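Researcher: Sequence of LacI family transcriptional regulator follows. Predict its structure.
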Amino acid sequence: MPEHITIKDIARILNISVSTVSRALRDAYDVNPETREKVLHLAKELDYKPNFNASGLAGGGTRNIGIILPFITNYYFSMVITGIQEVAYAKGYNIVLYVTNDSPEREMDVVRNLNTQNLDGVLVSVCSDSAANNYFEQIIAEGTPVVFFDRVLGSVDASKVVQDDYNGAFEAVEHLVKQGFSRIAHIAGPAGLDFTKHRLAGYLDALERYGLPVEPAWIVHSGFSQADGEADLEVLWEGKERPDAVFAVNDRKAIGVILQLKKRGIRVGPDFGVIGFTDDPMSAIISPSLSTVAEPAYEVGKQSCELLLQHIVRKNNFQVREITLPGVLIARESTRRS
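Model: Prediction complete. Tokens:
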């Protein structure tokens, strides 16, 4: 056998066409499952490595997927990337990463200068104050498949993969109520983001379900950092009426609240309830440990990439889809009254 195995070698051994081998390796929908299995088995046996440049020229594709996201140091996004990588690499795709640092100016610059000729498709999680709607719509109109995940633009007609923000928020607030808390505040994310709106809606509907008052002063919008959570608690503490619990839009903000409460000598759990959203590793380490709604970040990454690859294969024959994945409530010490 030659030192470098090509799809021509696989086609010759199996006595099938080169195009069939290429489509089987891309998991195209029009390949017989038995044939696909034979191709994949032989490719693995011969340690076949795709020639990305050649496959791009021959098939009109580059085997590259772009990923635009706000952070890479954030636990949630690191897990999303892990899920994307698993699917992409298994299907013979490279990933090209663009990090916006949650800056709308940086995001605009990335999208405006995106070389879509070198990408078969793009996965996107937008920044907090994204203003790139028109640019994403233009990319899609020009024929580049785009799938949004987590932080999505509701106004853009594209496929999306998100966690169930509404029901996760509802369950978080319901948990606080069942633990005996009745004056529940919400420290939210930036007002313009879809998932901020959905988590706020879940919070409000849970209060209504249990007949609890909605205090506008107890809804505070800001960023996503621990420092934002600390500052939000300061805002709540300066009001005429103080809450006895907080539902935070993410764990980092909830941890900021816990730290500020501890500085004030307030017992978190027995006297003041705190619940977050994400299940960041820090939530299990901090004392008291943080109750939260675990997001399926790894699965969001996997399903986003799988959905994008379906778009790439079927192009204009693929209908826009939206996938919503459930979260899981994890009760810890920060909401335990006894």
